[in-house]
Amino acid sequence: MRVTTSFPLGTLRDTPSEAEIISHQLLLKGGYIRRVNSGIYAYMPIMLRVIEKISTIIEKELNNKDCSKLLLPQLHPAELWKRSERWEGYTAGEGIMFNLKDRQGKEFGLAPTHEEVITSIVSEIINSYKQLPLCFYQIQTKFRDEIRPRFGLMRSREFIMKDGYSFHSSKEDLSSFYEKMGKAYENIFKNCGLETVGVDADSGAIGGAASKEFMVTADAGEDSILFTESGSYAANIEKAVSLPTKEIPLKNHQDEWLETPNQKSIVDICQKNNLDASQIVKVVIFLAKFEDKTEVPILACIRGDQCINEVKLFNFINKQYDSNLIHLKIVEDNAIIEKNLTNFPLGYIGPDIHDETIKNDSNWDKSWIRIADYSASTLSSFVSGGNKVNFHKVFQTFSFIDKKFLISDIRNAKKGDFINIESNEKLKEKRGIEIGHIFQLGQKYSEKLNAKFSDKDGKLKNLWMGCYGIGVTRIAQAAIEQNHDENGIIWPIQISPFEVLIIPTNLKDPNQKRLTEEIYKEFKNKQIDVLLDDRDDRAGVKFKDADLIGIPFQIIIGRDSINEEVEFLCRFSKSKIKITSKNLLEKFISESKVMYNKNS
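^ that's the sequence the OP posted. Answer follows.
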């Protein structure tokens, strides 16, 4: 292709102010994407080539795994999502589904994911175990009403995603296919030239028994990955488990009550009372909202030097009460507190606060659900709120509290923690960008959407189901986070928009023009993905743009064209050699093979 006739670059000289991270900046400066609105981008021709190459790699791998490609509707009837009991959670409050009504008043949602639709369809076409296993996938635009779109394609309102769904006759078959898809994902990311790490993950709103995320490690990543040096353990922070560091025992304290005027924070209490944070139990109040509109107040206790993991807390409540919990929110708003609670000294709350603090006219359930993390429940003695302003209290273990507590792991694991009692390995931490996620959904959706099959004995049973997602546009941006320098992008050759860029420095020179056309034609005839920068611009402008857009190889045609010589530059290694045009093609083929093999 030629820049002037079919491939305008549209590069920018200045960095757009809204771009916070380097990959977002380079996508905008390189002319790959154009912002239409917050979290909404147009994919320019050069970006679409990257997306198509990533999609081809995905399709090739999944087709080899006997998966069938289809295309599902993006507009979903609310009825399906209500049957799966996800409509309220996805549309109410901070839900991420765009939803609308048609002219007849029927409710619809723009698809953030497709579990309901594919399960409904499969329920109509599968009736026997002989038809299983079966896996469908698609590559399509998804929509999510992000509260705070940011980082370009990392967290946008619409994006391109590969989502796949498998159906099985048994839990064992699902588990086997799940492992098979994990290997397929590793191949896909490797063939995209990316270095990834697979980590145990929380299943989130998708649900299911097990899930695994595939991360690109990068400083700009929104997720934290905790792992051991040996590679024996890796999980994202939402899922990771560990042993907290040992607490400092609280010495015999003479007084049951501590006067703590204006001391609401852990830091203040420790500094002014000669205490360590591990000797304090902090109490955090949450409000749990269920699908049936029930609102239940949660009192969560954790050791003062630890932090509550809201995902773990959400999952524990959901499982403990076998209910469809749709929302869990920390209660900090004084107006909400005053409306629903009485005699509630925020900042001085203790684990033994009475249920009578909940007002009779409140919409909340009239009893606290009390949950203590292991780090708090195992303390031999501790300091916590005294339930009156300016006072804290010394407690002798949770067994001395006349209240019923549920005990669970609801804390964030941290770097430096041991992974278990038997191991001497400590957790380390990196930032990561999620580009893929696989789930064992089990029978969650088949049960609710009545998707059944007839087994060998003729009995009707619920289908077993898996779900497999890849962020196609996320892969493109994550690749830039892993592959760039001070001058611009350095694409892995597998997903680069072109393999080689030809740059004539002066097309008014007859020798340069002739040699440019000869090389361009030769490379095209060999089916090499080549772009010719035939703009009538200064050489410096072309060089700057070439480094910015990041095509792996550059062929620079200058004054040495009179001797049939050009410069051959590798963007990755920054090596530059002078070579005759006669040997150029062979050199490119050799170097590109090395790069393909290195990245895959």
